[in-house]
């Protein structure tokens, strides 16, 4: 990607934290980059406890809070758009970088190429989606409540099934440069399918369609390669993929920088 190769980047693995911590951390990284306090950053993290995140403009009525409590799931709102995600057995990545006049799809494409470069070390069949669904029409349907119900252009998949769900937000002001925050869930196991159990839907047939859609349209790394793929293995692969794509090494941050 023109303008990003050979630039210095930070890498940080913040481990497992609550939904509120994780979302606040991502926003704080974007702010620090915008103010010139840090380098572009790749962050990897997990969720403890597991949590449901809602898109920035999504209604809370989509989620059954009582069932979430029964399962022990947090509920948090993302600073980015998109639909509901259950953050369970996964590795989450976030990237904060300067926009530098690049469009949404250009940055999605760059990040997806880096993800594919890394994840293909674990599963050679990893690729990314090239078509784009009509989200304006899709989001009017209850079965679209889960983020993993459809793949957007440049989202990462295996044999047509969605492996990574991503969302992006831009931060801009008159006095500061525009920066991009993009983060996404990389499925390590099938536990994300529990999302269907904590959604508020009007009819049983809609719930059944959601269950079928999540089952037929998504895949996780462990199922794809028929062995357990760990957080640490995936983190190492993702870092390698970004290093190769950017043609640069990353400065490792061993302590939280927020």
Please explain how this structure is put together:
With 258 residues, this protein is an alpha/beta fold. It has a single domain (9-244), classed as Bira Bifunctional Protein, Domain 2 (BirA Bifunctional Protein, domain 2). 30% of the residues lie in helices and 25% in strands. Helix 3 crosses helix 7 (231-246). The mean pLDDT is 89.
Number of helices: 7
Q: What's the total count of β strands?
A: 12
Overall pLDDT score:
89
Report the end-to-end length measured between terminal Cα atoms. 28 Å
Q: What is the number of domains?
A: 1
Shape: globular
Strand adjacency order, main sheet = 10-11-6-2-1-12
Task: Walk me through the topology.
Blueprint: E1 9-17, H1 19-34, E2 41-47, E3 51-54, H2 65-71, E4 74-77, E5 85-87, E6 90-98, H3 104-119, E7 126-128, H4 135-138, E8 156-158, E9 161-162, E10 164-171, E11 179-187, H5 204-217, H6 221-225, H7 231-246, E12 250-253
Parallel strand pairs: 1-2, 1-12, 3-4
Antiparallel strand pairs: 2-6, 3-5, 6-11, 7-8, 8-9, 10-11
Helix pairs in contact: 3-7
Q: Quick recap of the structure?
A:
With 258 residues, the protein is of the alpha/beta class. It has helices at residues 19-34, 65-71, 104-119, 135-138, 204-217, 221-225, 231-246; strands at 9-17, 41-47, 51-54, 74-77, 85-87, 90-98, 126-128, 156-158, 161-162, 164-171, 179-187, 250-253. The protein is built from 7 helices and 12 strands.
